Amino acid sequence: MDQQTHAFGIDFGGSGIKGALVDLDTGEFASDRLRIETPAKATPEKVAAVVAQLVARAGLGPDVPVGLTVPGVVKRGVVHTAANIDPSWVGTDAEALFAERLQRPVAVVNDADAAGLTETRYGAARGQSGLVVLTTLGTGIGSALVFDGTLVPNSELGHLEVDGHDAETVAANSVRERNDLSWHAWAKALSRYYRAVEAVLWPDLFVAGGGVSKHADKFLPLLDIATPIVAAALRNRAGIVGAALLAHEKCPRWDSNPH
């Protein structure tokens, strides 16, 4: 298998850690998706052990790079926030930890950033010039900025202030579910959120991701915003594909015997 067109992507989520080999020419899985339950206390070391199991099961060649999503801010491989994961991730050099454990190149990326890049290269925003803003509408609101195909990482737009509140506390899909809001009522809150983003960024396209995107026909037509908005196309594959893509683009070849 040609390492120039394939990489292994891993999506670290709250309930499962999932991985697959990705054909980077097409954005499709080149192997079956593998999944292992996320450990109850998902510390970096415990997650690294699960990731090592996934990579071993996949039977990868020694030079195939691995990409991993993390639900937190990642700068130069170091995790800086841990809102929904174990606090021990903060300050962890995740790229160094996983590269050492796996003995191969590893890239670590924010989960929403991975999804945003995937949708721009292969999905709903393919061919779109200018600024694309992807939002993942779930427990919170994740975001990704992609300008002319280049990722601008760690945007964290779910924490904009909207009506005096942190945006994700009033507009996330979890708020709709918890308060049993109608699609119309939620669309009003979501419109206020997207208008706040428009006021500071003036994007060319919004992409709505997250699990609720499968119901896009129920709420996207109700939004009162100026920017075109479309539903994400790759949905639950986006994290794996984006992680693999970043690994391919950023990882040097691993040299286990440097001179």
What does the secondary structure layout of this molecule look like, with pairings?
Elements: E1 6-12, E2 16-23, E3 28-29, E4 34-37, H1 44-58, E5 66-70, E6 74-75, E7 78-79, H2 94-102, E8 106-110, H3 111-121, E9 131-137, E10 141-147, E11 150-152, E12 161-162, E13 165-166, H4 168-171, H5 173-178, H6 183-201, E14 205-209, H7 216-219, E15 229-231, H8 238-250
Parallel strand pairs: 1-5, 5-8, 9-14, 14-15
Antiparallel strand pairs: 1-2, 2-3, 2-4, 6-7, 9-10, 10-11, 12-13
Helix pairs in contact: 1-2, 3-8
Number of helices: 8
Largest sheet: 6 strands, mixed
Helix content: 25-40%
Q: Any low-confidence stretches, pLDDT <50, length ≥5?
A: 254-259
User: How would the global form be characterised?
Assistant: globular
Report the span from N to C terminus. Answer: 27 Å
How would you portray this structure in words?
The structure is a single chain. The chain has about 260 residues and is α/β, with parallel strands linked by helices. It has two domains: about 5-115 and about 240-250, Nucleotidyltransferase, domain 5, CATH 3.30.420; about 125-230, Nucleotidyltransferase, domain 5 (2-Layer Sandwich). The protein has helices spanning about 45-60, 95-100, 110-120, 170, 175-180, 185-200, 215-220, 240-250, and strands at about 5-10, 15-25, 30, 35, 65-70, 75, 80, 105-110, 130-135, 140-145, 150, 160, 165, 205-210, 230. Strands 1, 2, 3, 4, 5 and 8 form a six-stranded mixed sheet that branches. Strand 6 (about 75) and strand 7 form a beta hairpin. Helix 3 crosses helix 8. The longest helix is centred in the C-terminal third of the chain and has 19 residues, at about 185-200. The two termini are about 25 Å apart. The model is unreliable at about 255-259 (pLDDT under 50).
